[in-house]
Amino acid sequence: MTVEPIRARTVVGGGAIGGTLAFALARAGHPVTLVDSDRAHVAAIREHGLRMLRHDGATDIAHLQACTPEEFEGPLHEVLLAVKAQATETAIRWIAPRLAADGFVVSVQNGFNEPLIAEHIGAARTVAAFVNIFADVAEPGMIRDGGPGALVIGAPVGAPTGDRVRALIADLHPGTGAETSDNVEGYLWAKAGFGAMLAATALADDAMADLIDRHPAAMHTVAQEVFDVADALGVRLEPFDAFDALAFRRSADPAARADATARLTAWLRTQPKNRSGIWRDLAVRHRPVEVTTHYETVFAEAGRAGVTTPVLHAVVGGLKELEGAPEGMSEARLDALDALAAGHAAGCAAERGPHPATELPTQPALAPEEAEAVHAWLTAHQEDMVADLAAYTRLESPSDDPEALRTCMRWLRQWLDRALGAPDAEELLPREGAGDILIRRYAATGPADDSDPRPLLLLCHYDTVWPTGTLAQWPFRCEGDLITGPGVFDMKAGLVQAVWALRALDALSLPRPACTLLLNGDEETGSLASSETIIAEARASRAAFVFEASAEGALKTARKGVGLFRLTVQGQEAHAGLDPTAGASAVHEAARQILDIAGLTDLAAGTSVNVGVVHGGTRSNVTAGQAVADLDVRVANAAEQQRITAALAVREPANPGTTVRVTGDWNRPVFERTQDVADLYTLARACAAPLGLDLREAAVGGASDGNFVQTAGTPVLDGLGAVGGGAHARTEHATVSGMATRAALTASLLTCFAS
């Protein structure tokens, strides 16, 4: 069957939020169509109406049209999008081609979904909303009333609210208390902090209010971490219901925070549900939680702002562990969060402040004969080094294969235990959709350096660009001095060299400084899930060594910044043959924009702009309604970064019938050759001389995690890894002799920082 909406209002997603809003509109006499992919839910609404189960057990009924996406026909005008956050992409792809030119979409969802929606339909047709409704789906066709909640609607970033949106708010107000605001963003970030607390309660099987009362350290810290990010963005937080967001900021008065917590838990005890929807997803519905999607924006913004969120990461990681295993819920998890919060609190002020000045060593610590002895020891063990690299390479670890990354991580931990012994401390930080982060801390050997006890950061990544199955066609090989195989150069040999440098110093009873070894599993895809951890560890370190591959033997003392942007053009569809003047082609406009954007390239200044992926339109006989182009931008200095940022921010369409929008951001900042970098290179060159190396330096176009380290203000030396070439190509290779020599260079550098 096919169903057409009676009027222009459509709710897409008939769960707790969508069902509540559709019920409110229908009971007030406003025609509304509910679209949901759950056929049983739709069938029950058709047969019995949409039922609302009240607190006293009574049931109210609203009659409205309901259908599945496959059954829906006709244009969309005013859409209330209420699907789970992780389903936004699928839903908006369904909505976009059906949305009328004057239509709009209101995101009545949890999380920050407006930018994704705007990518498909344009910012002008995207409306933001804050929803705090404690309803639930009791059974197909029935919503359990969640009591009074908050609903605030308004255009993103304070843009004016149109007449039709105000009319929608007025129609929703009698049943929901809906209101408008020019600061919906402030409500969304406030709820993100509140939601983080509720997410933490889902780690245990008990009432939300009781868990918040018993674990204030974890609860306050996880909200503070979210609000640290909001503060960095300049967001003005808004209170709602019984949650006073300002009282949970890190700078708030502790007594005011305690009072706000008491008011919040008292209010929670009046609610019909004493457990969160996240808990219900895990324990009752046995389905993945959407909270991981909610906080992707928080983590990304935290990384860009240099804000650390260890407790929030631990909460999200714990929830992922409980998916499919709710029997693992335990209050012990919250006890561990309390301890993590207490340990982190002491360092927060320092992390937010400027990086302490580092007095870098200026001369090698090893005498020439000692440096030669280290090199000789490593040369004698180079077959063992190659054996380690062979075992490591035979564990494929592509960035997009989480299971392969987990397998590789298990091997790495066991190998590190064998090679270096148990660390003084270890943190394994789970990452959703990316490789986990491993942090191992090793104490100094020899006399302590009281002048600066901070560790050195040894930075490596264990993911590669090579897909699972590559080894079957291209296995690891070592023939003479040449090593080939996927990932040997970028950058598995680098980690092996770093570990053997430490082993050499221990074997020869030479001192080494305190070291933090950090391994991340998403460097090849931009370090989106690890950048904030890298920045936090860098800020706590004296200096950092990055074991990315060398540039034909040279250290890398400058790297370009990388920007990843998307150009989205929205046009107007029409029949290209019957009425060629009626529409406005997004593809044609994109072509003009692409040529103009490519013209921003200035090779003399070190700036390149590449449009690498373009797609748009639906059929050759349809004037294209949308076109998208993905951009990769490389810049050599901050001034060029500012120029490109400004140019991308002011795109204007040549065809007034189209709209143009550029989204995205700078994935990695510029890594410039600062004085600290130059001083570290000079030190490395002096350490290389006894090894017979004339060590060179190079500026390269590719970025690394060293870019993030420099953002933290930490002196950094990059390119200490393999000698070879062919990164990301079937010609990838490293040399055996290079492994021994670079490990000896690393060992000599390490001793410079020991007392």
Automatic annotation (TrEMBL):
Residues 11-155 form the Ketopantoate reductase N-terminal domain. The keyword Protein biosynthesis does not apply. CDD domains: M20_CPDG2 (cd03885). It holds the Pfam family ApbA. Residues 348-369 are annotated as: Disordered. Residues 183-322 form the Ketopantoate reductase C-terminal domain. Residues 557-648 form the Peptidase M20 dimerisation domain. Keywords: Hydrolase, Metal-binding. This is 2-dehydropantoate 2-reductase. It comes from Streptomyces olivaceiscleroticus.
